[in-house]
From TrEMBL:
<protein>
    <submittedName>
        <fullName>Threonine dehydratase</fullName>
        <ecNumber>4.3.1.19</ecNumber>
    </submittedName>
</protein>
<dbReference type="Pfam" id="PF00291">
    <property type="entry name" value="PALP"/>
</dbReference>
<dbReference type="InterPro" id="IPR002912">
    <property type="entry name" value="ACT_dom"/>
</dbReference>
<comment type="similarity">
    <text>Belongs to the serine/threonine dehydratase family.</text>
</comment>
<dbReference type="InterPro" id="IPR001926">
    <property type="entry name" value="TrpB-like_PALP"/>
</dbReference>
<dbReference type="InterPro" id="IPR045865">
    <property type="entry name" value="ACT-like_dom_sf"/>
</dbReference>
<dbReference type="InterPro" id="IPR036052">
    <property type="entry name" value="TrpB-like_PALP_sf"/>
</dbReference>
<dbReference type="InterPro" id="IPR044561">
    <property type="entry name" value="ACT_ThrD-II-like"/>
</dbReference>
<feature type="domain" description="ACT">
    <location>
        <begin position="340"/>
        <end position="418"/>
    </location>
</feature>
<dbReference type="InterPro" id="IPR050147">
    <property type="entry name" value="Ser/Thr_Dehydratase"/>
</dbReference>
<dbReference type="GO" id="GO:0004794">
    <property type="term" value="F:threonine deaminase activity"/>
</dbReference>
<keyword id="KW-0456">Lyase</keyword>
<dbReference type="InterPro" id="IPR005789">
    <property type="entry name" value="Thr_deHydtase_catblc"/>
</dbReference>
<dbReference type="Pfam" id="PF13291">
    <property type="entry name" value="ACT_4"/>
</dbReference>
<keyword id="KW-0663">Pyridoxal phosphate</keyword>
Length: 418
């Protein structure tokens, strides 16, 4: 879906930010935030069929790009606003960014989180110096409460994306990226509410008008894409990319995207998982689902990017360790490097030892064995074992199955590890 033509009244109206605002933000942030690396990735490039350069926004202290916008907003506050304090609503990266930099600047911060927020996120945000208020069963409930609290206590509300200062701060990532890699043909950026891509697109198009800017949404939350197309917004569901699971684009960010972004694409959960897995195994880099969305889009449509130099923004790395472990295991299964075989054996002494010997001789490493005599509808003098194995690849798995069957052990590949 391409950006609409610029001959409408809306497209001729001034945007909320310009390249000058992004440059002003960069001046404010200079020396206070590190320049994040722009790193070439030969192995990912080989996989995708294009030249990939990664912008590692997951290397910020709190693990995401959100620090840019939060700090730019906080630095813009007057003395009275600083004394009064700030408030934000977030269950994730924005909460940590506001808490961290408010504490650094000596500003009192309150973060409203939905009641379902995991305790580890609450604890982490409090450790960064914020007062945390848990309220509501949804993000909308928490946002409404935060707005009410801001009015009652005279606090400045720091929006996660729908604020010109926030978008300008996020746009500083594009200044750094194009300085490090000025020959990029395409810039691929995740989209939630639109603050990151809005700011980056404004800066990128001003610096290099011919660059193509592509935004990426998870398929379950295509709010920006739907809004650009004039469709009713319909989204929801469980996604690994919760950082971009936003149900409505911002009033500030939507025009930025409409004017400066060339296309908005969607990626599904399998591709998002693959991108997290590829970054971890090929680049040795931890990314959250939202942070891997830009790479997911490149892997999803290699023909589009073939032969081009593509800037991929890794927007964050705050993935739950349990989710990361599951993604890594599922990736191993998908590659045929971790499998479960169901093997039929005679219920007699030495049978299990023979199976183990055959598997070992064939180069498989046994991880787990489950011995079943009473279930799986097997004859009384037979048993079945489920064996979880580390293997080399899918061809190796087929060789193992053939070897076991040739040795008199009926064997089948199960679709799940457990």
């Amino acid at each position: 879906m391409s950006t609409p033509s610029s001959n409408t009244v809306a497209d001729s109206a001034p945007l909320a930010i310009s390249i000058d605002d992004v440059r002003a933000a960069a001046d404010r942030l200079r020396g206070l935030l590190p320049v994040t690396p722009a790193e070439a990735s030969p192995r990912l490039s080989e996989l995708a069929g294009c030249t990939i350069v990664l912008k590692l926004e997951n290397q910020h202290y709190t693990g995401s790009f959100k620090e840019r916008g939060a700090l730019n907003k906080l630095l813009s506050l007057g003395e009275a606003e600083r004394r009064a304090g700030v408030i934000a609503m977030s269950a994730g990266n924005h909460a940590q960014a506001v808490a961290c930099h408010a504490s650094r600047l000596g500003i009192r911060s309150t973060i409203v989180m939905p009641s379902f927020t995991p305790f580890t996120k609450v604890e982490r945000t409090e450790a960064l110096g914020a007062r945390v208020e848990l309220h509501g069963d949804t993000l909308s409930d928490a946002a409404a409460y935060a707005q009410d609290l801001a009015a009652k206590e005279g606090l400045t509300f720091v929006h996660p994306y729908d604020d010109p200062l926030i978008a300008a701060g996020q746009g500083t990532a594009a200044l750094e990226f194009l300085e490090a890699a000025p020959d990029l043909d395409v810039l691929v950026v995740p989209i939630g509410g639109g603050g990151l891509i809005g700011g980056m697109a404004v800066a990128a198009k001003a610096l290099k008008p011919g660059i193509q800017v592509i935004g990426v949404q998870c398929a379950m939350y295509p709010a920006m894409r739907q809004a650009l197309a004039g469709q009713d917004i319909a989204c929801g569901g469980a996604t690994i990319a919760e950082g971009i699971a936003v149900k409505a684009p911002g009033a500030v960010t939507l025009p930025l995207v409409r004017r400066c972004v060339d296309d908005v694409v969607m990626v599904g959960e399998p591709r998002l998982e693959e991108a997290v897995y590829r970054l971890a195994t090929l680049q040795k880099l931890v990314a959250e689902g939202a942070g891997a969305a830009a790479l997911a889009a490149v892997l999803d449509d290699p023909a589009r990017f073939s032969g081009k130099k593509v800037g991929v923004v890794v927007s964050g790395g705050n993935i739950d360790a349990r989710i990361l472990a599951q993604v890594l295991m599922r990736g191993l299964v998908d590659e045929g490097r971790m499998v479960r075989l169901r093997i039929g054996i005679t219920d007699a002494p030495g049978a299990l030892a023979r199976v183990a010997r055959l598997l070992g001789e064939a180069g498989a490493n046994i991880v787990e064995v489950h011995h079943q005599r009473l279930f799986h509808n097997v004859p009384v003098r037979m048993a079945e074992i489920d064996v979880v194995l580390e293997t080399r690849d899918r061809n190796h798995v087929q060789q193992l199955i053939a070897r076991m069957q040739d040795s008199g052990f009926p064997t089948e590949l199960m679709t799940e590890i457990s």
